[in-house]
Design brief:
By secondary structure, this protein is of the alpha+beta class. The chain has 3 domains: 3-62 and 215-241, Pseudouridine synthase (2-Layer Sandwich); 64-213, 2-Layer Sandwich (Pseudouridine synthase), CATH 3.30.2350.10; 244-306, PUA domain (Archaeosine Trna-guanine Transglycosylase, Chain: A, domain 4), CATH 2.30.130. Helix content is 19%, strand content 32%. It has helices at residues 15-26, 96-103, 127-132, 159-162, 188-199, 224-232, 257-264; strands at residues 3-9, 31-33, 42-49, 64-72, 108-112, 121-122, 125-126, 142-155, 175-182, 203-213, 216-217, 252-254, 269-270, 279-284, 288-297, 300-306. The strands form 3 sheets. Strands 1, 2, 3, 4, 5, 8, 9, 10 and 11 form a 9-stranded mixed beta sheet that branches. Strands 12-14-15-16-13 form a 5-stranded mixed beta sheet, with helices on one face. A two-stranded antiparallel ribbon has the order 6-7.
């Protein structure tokens, strides 16, 4: 089973949990994911199965889009809603103009310190392992790129009506909804935490939903229950992304039978001249993606990655 399946990851599961669930549902051992989501996060989680797991290398720096909410008033040790509060909650009443003024700092190429509870390594040890043992986590700033950081709304959280500020005619505005489009390696948990530092009231990432990764969006995503039902009904194939839609930055070339045989054996081959692209997707028929090939000269291409197997979806 060779293909790409987009899962709408539910909250409470790790990305690896989802991979294991799909392995059982699809009865396919070779399954990987393109870009980890934290357990609390939901949304677009692309999975690659069978020989198409070899395509993962083309998505390591994929752009990602998110929508989420930040709660102001206290920080947490994980920088998100699953962590322990680092102090008592403060009553805050945010103004849109002051939030926008801080948001400007998080647009473009910036330096960011990853959260202590992250997979970043310190002397070969993941930071989260040290943090769990309450050991010092001294991570160095890294450059990341936030291509878009839009403040969608400044509003009131549920406790604004009956907790902090309960009974007030004007409940505190302590939530910010945002949309962000980021390059790989960006931690939105750190953005939330740092915004709280700038505003002097503490903050953490309360919710996060990934709406897109590379060419995949929520319109392509399927719930785990839907995937299980499709498998039981013999319609799992219908949920896989059509391979012609993968890696749209590479033109598609269709090889004849003789050329396809040469490509499958890893040999160079002349392909139809469609563009001067350095790399192309090579298909046999409409659905079988057999290789990613690199131009040698003119119409001569060499398969960089051979995707064997005759049932690519």
């Amino acid at each position: 089973m060779n293909g790409v399946l987009i899962v709408d990851k539910p909250a409470g599961m790790t990305s690896h949990d989802v991979v294991n669930r799909i392995r059982r549902i699809a009865e396919e051992r070779s399954v990987g994911h393109l870009g980890t989501l934290d357990p609390m996060a939901t949304g677009v989680l692309p999975l690659v199965t069978g020989s198409l797991t070899r395509l993962a290398q083309f998505y390591t720096s994929a752009e990602k889009t998110y929508e989420g909410s930040i709660r102001f008033g206290f920080a947490t040790d994980t920088y998100d809603a699953e962590g322990e509060p680092m102090g008592a909650p403060q009553r805050v009443n945010l103004r849109t103009d002051e939030v926008e003024a801080v948001a400007v700092r998080f647009r473009g190429v910036i330096e960011q310190i990853p959260p202590p509870f992250s997979a970043k390594k310190i002397h070969g040890v993941p930071a989260y392992k040290l943090a769990r043992k309450h050991k010092e986590v001294a991570l160095k700033p890294v450059k990341v790129e936030i291509k878009e950081f839009a403040i969608l709304d400044v509003g009131v959280g549920p406790e604004g009506l009956d907790g902090i500020g309960g009974g007030q005619e004007c409940p505190p505005h302590n939530r910010v909804r945002f949309r962000a489009r980021v390059a790989s390696g960006t931690y939105l948990r750190s953005v939330a935490h740092d915004m709280g530092q700038f505003l002097g009231c503490g903050a953490h990432l309360e919710s996060l939903r990934r709406t897109a990764l590379a060419e995949f969006g929520l319109e392509d995503a399927h719930r785990l229950e839907e995937i299980a039902e499709a498998k039981a009904g013999g319609a799992l194939d219908d949920l896989f992304v059509h391979p012609r839609k993968l890696l749209p930055q590479f033109p598609s070339v269709t090889a004849d039978e003789a050329s396809a045989a040469r490509i499958r054996s890893g040999r160079t081959v002349n392909l139809p001249e469609l563009s001067r692209a350095r790399q192309v997707k090579v298909f046999y028929g409409q659905r079988e993606l057999i290789a990613i090939a690199t131009r040698v000269a003119g119409t001569l291409f060499h398969p960089k990655i051979v995707l064997c197997g005759g049932d690519s979806r």
